[in-house]
Structures are given as C-alpha cells and as structure tokens.
Design goal:
alpha+beta; single chain; two-stranded antiparallel sheet; globular; Fructose Permease
C-alpha cells in the first residue's frame, strides 16, 4: 500500500500501531521531515541517506548526496536522537557511516 502523508500524519499513524508487524519504507524530501517525525515520537532506528540532489549552497558528500548546512544540522540532530544514519545506494554496496561522510 502507498500512503502520502505529512510528517505529523505519518507520526500519528505509526505511533497508533497502524503498521504494527509490517515493514515500512518512509521516503522523504529532506531530513527536516525525519526530524519532525522524531519530534512527534517516531523511532527511526536506521536511516539510509541517498539521492539528495545538488542545490544552492550545498556540498557533495557522496556521489548522489549533496547537503546544505540545514541538512547537516538535521542529520546531527537525528544522530543525537539515536538514529543510525548510513549511505548505501544498492544492496551490493557496503553501508557507509553517513556521519563520517559529513565530516569530509
């Protein structure tokens, strides 16, 4: 099934147990949406960061990931909240610690 939701709406559904026992893939436009979800009580144990296009005032940290300073702030916040952030474009690749990529 596909649901297109706001961060708050997604948090409400996840926290209510609507997806209990299911594997859920959450796709978001930017890490600020994930921050909102965490602030609304959603536990995000793992986050695979990928395909963030180059934009004004962004810097490349991986082949397909460019971040702004605001993105970096949000990723640091998520990391502090216990989310494991990694970068892996395809399953055949090894997972890379995303916080180490941000340090480059």
């Amino acid at each position: 099934h596909l649901s297109i939701l706001t961060a708050k709406g997604a948090a409400r559904r996840i926290n209510s147990g609507k997806y209990q026992g299911q594997t859920v893939l959450v796709l978001v436009k930017n890490p600020g949406v994930l921050k909102q979800m965490v602030d609304n009580g959603v536990k995000l144990p793992e986050i695979n960061v990928g395909n963030m296009s180059t934009k004004t005032n962004s810097r490349q940290v991986a082949k397909s990931v460019a971040v702004t300073e605001k993105d970096v702030e949000n990723f640091k916040y998520l990391n502090e909240k216990g989310c494991h952030l990694y970068h892996q474009m395809v399953p055949a690749e090894d997972k890379e610690d995303f916080m180490k990529l941000l340090e480059k």
